[in-house]
Design goal:
Layout (H helix, E strand, L loop, with lengths): L9 H15 L3 E5 L4 H17 L4 E7 L5 H7 L2 E6 L7 H9 L5 H33 L9 E4 L5 H9 L2 E6 L11 H8 L1 H8 L8 H8 L5 H10 L26 E3 L16 E3 L14 H8 L16 H8 L6 E4 L12 H14 L4 E4 L4 H12 L14 E4 L4 E4 L5 H4 L5 E4 L3 H10 L3 E3 L8 H17 L10
Helix pairs in contact: 5-6, 7-8, 13-17
């Protein structure tokens, strides 16, 4: 019996084992998206589609634990869901309380400090959890070929982590960048960082230049990131500078990052002053089954994916909505709140409902109100229903449905795909979210849009748009009064 001996050195054997491991390693795609459902879910749909199409990749998705409902859908697409404990939004009322406070008040000063401290603690914990997750995902692998991090505009942690782990960073956004640099930004940047300003101005074509900075990258240079980059990530406090000398990395030119917008160029054209690596890719519609709050409806639509949505009926629990849509008279007018309730912009639900009641009384139209599960509004609806006149009925709470105002306002606290609903509506009134805007365009119905990031109460905003809608529908202009 002969024995075969390996005469190779131990170093050579280890090197061969590492080479074999690198050959078997799957490239990593890490998606990061923070914010409300409208901010996160289109990117989630992109991640799921990427995982389904590019099966060679190991795909993970980092977002708020509040979006835990995505985990089951991700599991079916082989996407690893990684929850982060931070909340999707900080309620606007907290910001308003701070801005309305008097600097001379000791209580206001303490309130301001408490809010700032809480916000800073949330940011620090979110960054800590993101770093820990990225370390688990990328590990200590030297080979990063094919790896990338894809972020939305509210997950800028991903840009710095991509620099740390030396992988590409891609920006995926369902809408145009929602913020712009302060008017004094360029002047201050040039004054404080003249060499870095020159570095960007002289950037060769295809590399990061001043257009990238002005379009979306300027928040990366704000002071809030410097200490985290320097103390925790051990990077330079300012991107694109040397950690020792703080001078621009003249010998290194980073490729201009790919920025993918999830809307059609026929809706928003890409102007010439945008960076060259910005592309509009068409709307990113969510899978129909993702958009139901009812499990039976989810299964019905997922099992009948080849049937047009108009031909698929809702489950018995939600038949009241379908009956309302199919009833006599004109198609209903849709009013949707999306996330503006949870963001703290709906300060007076009762006044908001009073506005809708006044419009209903002045028109022959019926309305559908999607509350998005905002509890103060749902509570106001239940109160009105419980105290309604005998000829006003309402459904049981477990159906997610309530009728108000002589059964002409259908209030719904669950979720139904807009692509199923909007073709059955006359008009859509909503807060201009990417998904609702795309669905109304796809349905070919008029829509009245408003920005949810407004400084006055939403019931006042809706008072304005419904009065204009009333003028459009009836030729009458009615002054709609509201109270605080």
């Amino acid at each position: 019996m002969s024995t075969r001996h390996d005469h190779r050195g131990s170093g050579e054997a280890i090197k061969e084992e590492e080479t074999e491991a690198m050959r078997d390693r799957r490239p990593i795609a890490l998606f990061m998206a923070f914010g409300t459902k409208g901010d996160v879910f289109p990117v989630a749909a992109l991640a799921a589609a990427f995982s389904y199409d590019q099966k060679q990749y190991e795909v993970s998705f980092i977002t708020h634990s509040a979006h835990q409902e995505l985990s089951a859908d991700f599991a079916a697409k082989n996407v690893t869901f990684i929850p982060i404990s931070s909340p999707p939004v900080l309620a606007a009322c907290q910001h308003e309380q701070i801005s309305d406070s008097k600097p001379s008040s000791v209580d206001s000063y303490c309130e301001h400090n408490n809010f700032s401290l809480r916000k800073r603690m949330i940011e620090e914990e979110q960054r800590r959890e993101c770093l820990a997750a990225a370390e688990r995902i990328f590990g200590s692998d030297i080979n990063k070929e094919g790896d990338f991090i894809a972020i939305n505009f509210f997950a800028l942690e991903g840009w710095h982590l991509a620099e740390l782990f030396q992988v590409h960073c891609i920006v995926t956004a369902p809408y145009v960048v929602p913020y712009s640099a302060p008017s004094s930004f360029e002047y201050q940047f040039k004054k404080d960082l003249p060499l870095l300003y020159q570095y960007f101005q002289e950037a060769p074509v295809g590399t990061v230049g001043w257009k990238d900075v002005l379009h979306w990258m300027w928040p990366l240079f704000m002071e809030t990131w410097g200490s985290w980059r320097n103390n925790i990530l051990k990077l330079s406090s300012i991107p694109f500078t040397d950690p020792v000398t703080d001078l621009p990395l003249w010998h290194i030119r980073t490729e201009s990052p790919l920025l993918l917008y999830g809307f059609s160029q026929k809706i928003v054209e890409c102007p010439g002053y945008w960076p060259a690596n910005v592309y509009s890719c068409g709307f990113w519609f969510l899978p129909m089954e993702w958009q139901f709050s009812c499990e039976k409806c989810r299964l019905a639509f997922s099992n009948n994916s080849s049937i047009p949505p108009a031909l698929v009926e809702l489950c018995q629990r939600h038949m009241s909505l379908q009956n309302f849509l199919n009833g006599p008279s004109n198609p209903p007018i849709f009013v949707g709140l999306s996330s503006i309730g949870s963001m703290g912009f709906l300060t007076n639900p009762k006044a908001f409902l009073a506005v809708l009641q006044r419009v209903i009384e002045a028109t022959e139209y019926k309305f559908i109100l999607f509350t998005s599960g905002y509890e103060p509004l749902d509570a106001s609806i239940r109160y009105l229903a419980d105290n309604a006149m005998p000829n006003t009925s309402h459904m049981l709470e477990e159906t997610d449905s309530t009728f108000l105002f002589n059964n002409r306002l259908f209030c719904f606290s669950g979720s139904i795909p807009y692509r199923w609903l909007f073709p059955r509506c006359a008009v859509a009134i909503h807060h201009a979210g990417s998904g609702s805007t795309a669905a109304a365009l796809h349905a070919g119905i008029p829509q009245v849009l408003g920005n949810s990031h407004i400084s006055f109460p939403v019931h006042y905003f809706y008072c304005q748009i419904v009065s204009r809608l009333l003028l459009l529908l009836t030729g009458k202009f009615v002054v709609l009064l509201y109270g605080d």
